[in-house]
C-alpha cells in the first residue's frame, strides 16, 4: 500500500508504479535550483572545452544525456536558434524535436565543434558527432563539473539538469504543452510534475500571490 505523497510530490496514478517524481525515496530533491544551475554553469566555464559545451547543452536544452551525445553538426540550426534532438525515449525511431537555446550556447558550439565548417561539407555535418563519447565518459564529464561547483546528491547529475530545466520553464510561465514538446515527453501528465516545484521556486510563485 503506497503512502501519502510528500510535499511537492504527485501521487503516482494507479497502474503506473514508479512514475517520475521530483523527490527520491528519502525525500531528497532530484532537481537543481536556479541558483545551483547557475553555479554549475560557472564551474563549466573552467572545464575542458568539450565538457563545457556538453554541460551547457544539457542545462539550456533539458535534453537527456544520450540525446546530447547523439547530436550531430547538421542538427545545430544556427540560423533558427534551435538544437534538433532525436527523441530516444519514445518507442518509434525518427522522432525529432527542436528546442530553442540561447545564442551563447550556439556560439560556443560553433567555436568548439566547428559547426559552420562541418555544415559546408557533404552531408552538412550529419556524420560529425559533437561528442563521440560513451555514455559513461559523458556522465563523468558532467559529474566532474558538479563536484567543482560544490554540488552533490541526487540533483547533481545529468537528470538533475533535465529536471531543473523543466522546473525553471514552468516557473517562468512557459505553457506545459510547450515544455512537454521541448523535453520530448510522451504524456502531458509527466510534464505536469514540474508544476509541483518547491523550495525557492515555489517561494517565487507564492510571492506573486502575496504581492
From TrEMBL:
SUPFAM superfamilies, per this entry?
Answer: DNA breaking-rejoining enzymes
Which key words are in the record?
Answer: DNA integration, DNA recombination, DNA-binding, Plasmid
> Which spans are transmembrane here?
none
Question: Molecular function (GO) terms listed?
Answer: DNA binding
Q: Which residues form the Tyr recombinase domain?
A: 27-207
Q: Where is this region: Disordered?
A: 1-23
InterPro entries the UniProt entry points to? DNA_brk_join_enz, Integrase-like_cat_sf, Integrase_catalytic, Tyrosine_recombinase_XerCD
User: Matching Pfam families, A to Z?
Assistant: Phage_integrase
BP-aspect Gene Ontology terms? DNA integration; DNA recombination
Q: Which residues form a coiled coil?
A: none
Membership in a protein family: Belongs to the 'phage' integrase family.
Q: What is this protein called?
A: Tyrosine recombinase XerD
Q: Which gene encodes it?
A: xerD
Amino acid at each position: 500500500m503506497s503512502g501519502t505523497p510528500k510535499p511537492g510530490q504527485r501521487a503516482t496514478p494507479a497502474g503506473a508504479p514508479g512514475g517520475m517524481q521530483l523527490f527520491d525515496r528519502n525525500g531528497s530533491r532530484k532537481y537543481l535550483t536556479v541558483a545551483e544551475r547557475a553555479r554549475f554553469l560557472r564551474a563549466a566555464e573552467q572545464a575542458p572545452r568539450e565538457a563545457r559545451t556538453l554541460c551547457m547543452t544539457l542545462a539550456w536544452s533539458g535534453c537527456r544525456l544520450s540525446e546530447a551525445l547523439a547530436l550531430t553538426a547538421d542538427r545545430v540550426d544556427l540560423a533558427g536558434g534551435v538544437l534538433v534532438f532525436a527523441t530516444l525515449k519514445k518507442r518509434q525511431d525518427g522522432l525529432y524535436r527542436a528546442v530553442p537555446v540561447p545564442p551563447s550556447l550556439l556560439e560556443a558550439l560553433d567555436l568548439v565543434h566547428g559547426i559552420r565548417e562541418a555544415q559546408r561539407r557533404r552531408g552538412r555535418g550529419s556524420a560529425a558527432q559533437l561528442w563521440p563519447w560513451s555514455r559513461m565518459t559523458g556522465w563523468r564529464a558532467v559529474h566532474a563539473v558538479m563536484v567543482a561547483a560544490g554540488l552533490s546528491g541526487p540533483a547533481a547529475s545529468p537528470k538533475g539538469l533535465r529536471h531543473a530545466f523543466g522546473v525553471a520553464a514552468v516557473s517562468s510561465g512557459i505553457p506545459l504543452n510547450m515544455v512537454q514538446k521541448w523535453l520530448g515527453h510522451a504524456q502531458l501528465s509527466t510534464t505536469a510534475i514540474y508544476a509541483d516545484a518547491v523550495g525557492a521556486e515555489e517561494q517565487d510563485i507564492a510571492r506573486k500571490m502575496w504581492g
